[in-house]
Design a protein that fits this description.
Two copies of one chain form a homodimer. Chain A is α/β, with parallel strands linked by helices. Chain A has two domains: 168 residues, Rossmann fold (3-Layer(aba) Sandwich); 184 residues, Dehydroquinate synthase-like - alpha domain (Dehydroquinate synthase-like, alpha domain). The first copy, chain A, contains 13 helices and eleven strands. In chain A, the strands form three sheets. In chain A, strands 1-2-9-6-5-3-4 form a seven-stranded mixed sheet. A two-stranded antiparallel ribbon of chain A has the order 7-8. The first copy, chain A, has a two-stranded antiparallel ribbon with strand order 10-11. The longest helix of chain A is centred in the middle third of the chain and has 21 residues. Chain A is globular. The relative contact order of chain A is 0.11.
Chain lengths: 362, 362
């Protein structure tokens, strides 16, 4: 059986790797084998994804030495304790430096499994097999791996590029509605930071995206990955332009932390963050009120929240100050010069940020 | 106050850094400041070292934002649980990407603090201030960081080069006898793998080393670091010649794991490992019986054990199979072609290894 698929490439010298996007890829033995090293393999998945997709992966990898580690599902399990379970499985499976971790699931599975691979025996290979829209367009690509610390999201982590990313679009068919919408927040983000044309396209094609039209989904995943690939290839470790990918995330992380990880989905918090970033940009005189409205409307049409929970302005600032982009005590924000062009800035009037938080979260 | 000191350099492109070796360096404000970034600092030390050396470091860094995290002393605390304490201190101290961890102590402190720095916010700076001979000649240099997993030593780790290594020779004056000898095992290792002349020098100067003659200690530390610097600069991530530095370590790690981390000091286990590696090399026809005797004698004269504990040949093989150098199920060993020339080999008759283990540990 052959499937139509597209392949993008992350260019990072000897850490370069392909991103395959298409239907039926989880059952594509040749493609999987081509991306994996020869040694023992540990599949890390979760209780929701494993029953659905692990059997076809198992069949495709029949004959390979394959261990499995099935984690509980949810952001609240993205902890040091869950990570310890993956290490235990790696030890029990005697996964050595010629082996690999296979992350089969959404962003949480990919982040934990990726971090375990980054740190097991000082780094073994990881193949990312994202099964959610959010993971396919964002978290599986670019090598950011992490678990949460009680003080903040993703505070414990590493840069560790996968050996391959295989995004099987079939897995989006069974994705819960709320998860699909959460992924759309990241898709919208790409339009906002880098590609006004993509933003127009999204506004037009949103109904078909929400109906999960396979062709439109394929296009959304591929265009998102292309923007991410460009920024990651330019700046692997986020010393420069890669930080643009965090549009909406500093606000979003504060919401996730304040409400307890898991109540808000990551994409939902990011959606609110996109609106707050647009609003902050407006108050700085960069965006027109109509631009902010356009962002808010697209977010709402995607079935995402546009209003922040009332976590308090002070608490929000406190949580934002834990952000990894803090430099010299200053929260650097990703803001919008215009729709389709984001900038990273620590050089804004702090009273503007305070005013936005007073208005939106107090 | 000025002090005589020497500076070596690890050449790794934009990850290059200096190693300063000399007396009084922990009180040398200018040297410390030159090596540290501008942001908040967390000193990680242990209950033995902190009372002795933290006050002078605190004085030298007066005016800097300095937090402290004092861990229990000993290899058995090199665990995920202890690591979690360092993360908690980093969060409480709001140590951000422009800050640094300062590792003040021996190998265990350096490994845990280095790994915490490698993974906090996906990597912040770490300054290594080794206070034991073992840490000064080996573990503080080269960027290997790790904690232990119940299944094996250093199974959880990362490569993360320090921003500076500052080895204050004064700290060796108060080092317990057993710790000093443990460090000598690594010093002897350097002679065996790379420098027959250094081995001759060690045999000659051993009595002065054991009396802690400052000049001889300075020479031993500097020559050891020079060999390590050469191999690390050639091969940062141990895909080639750097693995030579593990002479004696695959045996040694098995001893440490079998006896429970902490009963044997690392250097003591390595000392036995050096003898077993020499003996294996003899049985492969590479060393003469007189060479093995020479190794055994130097180890014994340094006050180190040359005989393995009876952990059982099968158990030893099992533990060695968890070694990070395993490839395709084969334990690769560092062996000696002659004294002063080590090689990494997976291509040996396994019955020779079994025979050595039967004779030495069964």
């Amino acid at each position: 059986m052959t499937h139509a698929s597209r392949t993008l490439r992350i260019d990072l010298g000897d850490r370069s790797y392909p991103i395959h996007i298409g239907a039926g890829l989880l059952a594509d033995r040749a493609r999987l084998e081509a991306g994996l090293p020869a040694g023992p393999l540990l599949v890390v998945s979760n209780e929701t994804v494993a029953p659905r997709y692990l059997p076809r992966l198992r069949a495709a990898l029949a004959g390979r030495e394959l261990r499995e580690c099935v984690l509980p599902d949810g952001e609240r399990y993205k902890t040091q304790a869950t990570l310890a379970r993956v290490y235990d499985a790696l030890a029990a499976g005697r996964v050595s430096r010629d082996g690999a971790v296979i992350a089969l699931g959404g962003g949480v599975v990919g982040d934990i499994a990726g971090f375990a691979a980054a740190t097991w025996q000082r780094g073994i290979a990881v193949a990312q097999l994202p099964t959610t829209l959010l993971a396919q367009v964002d978290s599986s690509v670019g090598g950011k791996t992490a678990v949460n610390h009680p003080a903040g999201k993703n505070l414990i982590g590493a840069f560790h590029q996968p050996c391959v990313v295989i995004a099987d679009l079939d897995s989006l068919a069974t994705l819960p509605e709320r998860e699909l919408k959460s992924g759309l927040a990241e898709v919208i983000k790409y339009g906002l930071i880098r590609d006004a044309g993509f933003l127009d396209w999204l506004e037009r094609e949103l109904p078909r995206l929400l109906r999960r039209d396979p062709e439109v989904l394929a296009e959304a995943v591929a265009r998102s990955c292309a923007i991410k690939a460009e920024l990651v290839s330019l700046d692997e470790r986020e010393s420069g332009p890669r930080a643009l990918l965090n549009l909406g995330h500093t606000f979003g992380h504060a919401i996730e932390a304040a409400t307890g990880y898991g109540e808000w989905l990551h994409g939902e918090a990011v959606a609110v963050g996109l609106v707050l970033a647009a609003e902050t940009s407006r108050r700085l005189g960069w965006l027109a009120a109509a631009d902010v409205l356009r962002v808010r409307e697209l977010v709402l049409r995607a079935g995402l929240p546009a209003k922040a929970p009332r976590i308090g302005a002070e608490r929000a600032l406190e949580l934002m100050a834990l952000d990894k982009k803090v430099l010299a005590g200053r929260v650097r924000l990703v803001l919008l010069k215009r729709l389709g062009e984001a900038v990273v800035s620590g050089d804004y009037d702090p009273s503007v940020l305070e005013a936005v938080l007073e208005a939106e979260v107090a």
